[in-house]
Design a protein that fits this description.
Keywords: Coiled coil, DNA-binding, Transcription, Transcription regulation. The protein contains 10 helices and no strands. The chain has about 200 residues and is mainly α. Helix 8 packs across helix 9.
Length: about 200
């Protein structure tokens, strides 16, 4: 069936080029200014009009979702590798560490990801739900092994990863803050192992 018969046509070359250019510039722009940087300023830096930017990405969440897509693929590769890990606690810990790296891709990213959890229309919502499902998978394996507390939920661990990422950029935090929060979260979800040193 031809494009004429289906009533569709391939995006024009210049449209594809503009989209690629916007994403390339947005990667640098958000790394410098954080995700709250002006989209109009981003469009200007990319050499396109604001209308062109919004035709490709109707809102900030849509642009962020597109930028995170490549990182999603990297995270999915790590997920597949961790599925081969025989130690369920180690697998969950490494998955949460990978999530922590993912949510710090840009300054300010944790907030729109948190908001997306209650906004099904957000393009970020599907991404978040997918990673919560994966967190549930690793958590369930640890729970079956008796290594994670039965009342813990994957959604809560995902939110904890967002909270830890937020703390890293908080004004009152220091170099030890994020690790301290990760340790506190772990002490909450993990059951003590033989030989573990009790908290004092």
């Amino acid at each position: 069936m031809t494009e004429a018969e289906t009533g569709t046509r391939r995006p024009r070359t210049d449209a594809r080029r503009n989209r690629t250019r916007i994403l390339e510039v947005a990667e640098e722009f958000f790394a410098e200014a954080g995700i709250t940087g002006s989209l109009d300023a981003l469009a200007k830096r990319a050499g396109v009009g604001a209308g062109t930017l919004y035709r490709h990405f109707p809102n900030r969440d849509a642009l962020l979702a597109a930028l995170l897509l490549a990182r999603n693929e990297e995270l999915e590769v790590r997920r597949e590798a961790l599925r081969q890990e025989t130690d369920s606690v180690a697998a969950l810990e490494q998955w949460l560490e990978a999530l922590g790296e993912w949510v710090t891709a840009f300054d300010g990213l944790p907030e729109p990801l948190r908001a997306a959890l209650s906004q099904e229309s957000s393009p970020l919502a599907i991404t978040c739900q997918g990673f919560i499902t994966t967190t549930d998978e690793f958590l369930a394996a640890a729970q079956r092994a008796g290594s994670a507390r039965p009342w813990v939920r994957g959604r809560d661990l995902f939110l904890a990863a967002l909270a830890t990422a937020w703390v890293r950029g908080a004004a009152m935090s220091d170099e030890a803050s994020a690790q301290a929060l990760r340790d506190m979260v772990r002490s909450g979800w993990a059951t003590p192992r033989p030989g573990d040193t009790p908290a004092t």
